[in-house]
Amino acid sequence: LLSSLCLSHAVQVSAVEVITPEELFVENGTDAKLPCTFTSLEVISSAASVSWSFQPEGAATRISFFYYSNGKSYPGKDIPFKDRVTWSGDLNKKDASITISNMQFRDNGTYICDVKNPPDIVVKPGEIRVRVVEK
């Protein structure tokens, strides 16, 4: 007679809550600060990180274009945001915002802000629908 032994243990997982505006209107050719703040029950650790991705209007896939960790920003080297993204946040103040300079009509789409603060893990990243409009 074989008996199976099941071991289970509950893992306490807390979540980071990411807060972004639902929609943001930006004038063509201007700089846009994409606001992203978060709440976390854990102390902000050196392992905390932020990643931003972009889903163009009508596209099915997302492009990762910015990463921030350990006090350093790692902007993507490829189009569409090459040399246009700067870190505007402060993780100690629970701010993960970025600024994109010289916004263009091709920048229309959804921007996704994903914050990790181990052991906190994100349940739902923040999403901002950006609309670039004529001046």
Folded structure, characterized:
It is a single chain. The protein has strands spanning 15-19, 23-27, 32-34, 37-39, 49-56, 63-69, 72-75, 85-87, 98-100, 109-116, 121-122, 126-133. It is mostly beta strands and 135 residues long. The protein has a single domain, classed as Immunoglobulin-like. Strands 2-12-10-5-6-7 form a six-stranded mixed sheet, with no helix packed on it. A three-stranded mixed sheet has the order 4-1-11, with no helix packed on it. Strands 3-9-8 form a three-stranded antiparallel sheet, with no helix packed on it. The N and C termini lie far apart (78 Å).
Q: State the total count of DSSP E strands.
A: 12
Oligomer: single chain
Largest sheet: 6 strands, mixed
Specify the CATH class.
Mainly Beta
Could you tell me the CATH topology label: Immunoglobulin-like
Count, helices: 0
CATH architecture level-2 label: Sandwich
The averaged pLDDT comes out at 88
Fraction of residues in helices? under 10%
* Strand residue content: 35-45%
Q: Note the overall shape.
A: globular
Could you tell me how far the N terminus lies from the C terminus, measured between alpha carbons in angstroms?
Answer: 78 Å
Provide the succession of SSEs. EEEEEEEEEEEE
Low-pLDDT runs: 1-12
Looking at this structure, what is the CATH superfamily?
Answer: Immunoglobulins
Radius of gyration: 18 Å
Tally of structural domains: 1
**Largest beta sheet: what is the strand line-up?**
2-12-10-5-6-7
Structural class: mainly beta
